[in-house]
Structures are given as C-alpha cells and as structure tokens.
Design a protein that fits this description.
transmembrane helix; transmembrane; mainly alpha; globular; DoxX-like_oxidoreductase; cell membrane; Putative oxidoreductase
C-alpha cells in the first residue's frame, strides 16, 4: 500500500508541478507558522482563524501545518501525494469559506471586499497533478521507491 502511494512517474513535468506548488505555497505557510514575509506567526494566526473566521481549533491548526510543512515536503518531494491531497482539500475549503462570495478574480486593484478564487484554482490544479502522478524527478519519493 505504501509503495503505491509513494510510487511516482519519473518525469520533468511532475518535478515542475510539485516544485512550483511548494515554492508558491511556502511563503504563505511561513507567514502563518513563523511570521516571515509580513505574517503574524503561529499564535496570532491561530487566534485569527479561530476567532475571526470561527474555524475549529483543529482545522486552524491543520491549515497552518499543511501550508508550512506541506510546502517544504513538496519542495523536497517527500510524501508528495499525501501533501497534495491535504492541499487540495485545504484550498477547496478556502474557496467555500472565504472566496466564493467574491467571484473568480483576485483583488488586484483593491476594489473587492476579498479575494476571488482564481489563485486557489491554480493551486488545486497543481495539487491534483501531483496527486495523480506523484512527485516526479528528483523527489525523495522516487529515491525511496527505487531502494
């Protein structure tokens, strides 16, 4: 069972999809977990997610963990399918809890009350590709399965 989950196509396209997903997601996770890139850090983000957005503490915790560790593990290609699935569910949740009411487009010019879901759809697409095909070339998944 584990071998099926870890097995990956050894191709460049999946490397690009996995690496791009990890690199794009990492700053968002680092904002929430560490307070980097202008973020608030773990405690303030937990407070915001549980009080302002009224998410249960476990969901708020999983949001932070998934964005931070999911991004890191995708960059190195470890458990790529599992983290991609977590990210897929996370961003579907983000669309329905925070973005759908604002429409498709992101808030490029600050005229909307919130962000649309176009960014989330891109994340979902990359996560789905990685979920289906695995981590690709130069992933730890690939190294593990070959041994």
């Amino acid at each position: 069972m584990i071998r099926k989950i870890i097995k990956t196509d050894d191709n460049w396209g999946q490397l690009i999809a996995r690496f791009t997903l990890g690199l794009v997601l990492f700053p968002h996770g680092a904002q929430k977990m560490l307070g980097l890139f202008g973020g608030y850090g773990f405690t303030a983000t937990m407070d915001s997610l549980t009080h302002q957005m009224q998410l249960p503490w476990l969901i708020a915790f999983l949001v932070i963990i998934t964005e931070f560790f999911g991004a890191i593990f995708l960059i190195i290609g470890f458990s790529s399918r599992i983290w991609s699935l977590a990210i897929l569910f996370l961003f579907i949740g983000i669309i329905f809890t925070a973005q759908i009411e604002h429409g498709f487009f992101m808030n490029w010019f600050g005229v909307q009350k919130g962000e649309g879901y176009e960014y989330s759809l891109l994340i979902i697409g990359l996560a789905t590709s990685t979920l289906i095909n695995g981590g690709g070339k130069f992933s730890l998944d690939n190294e593990i399965i070959q041994k």
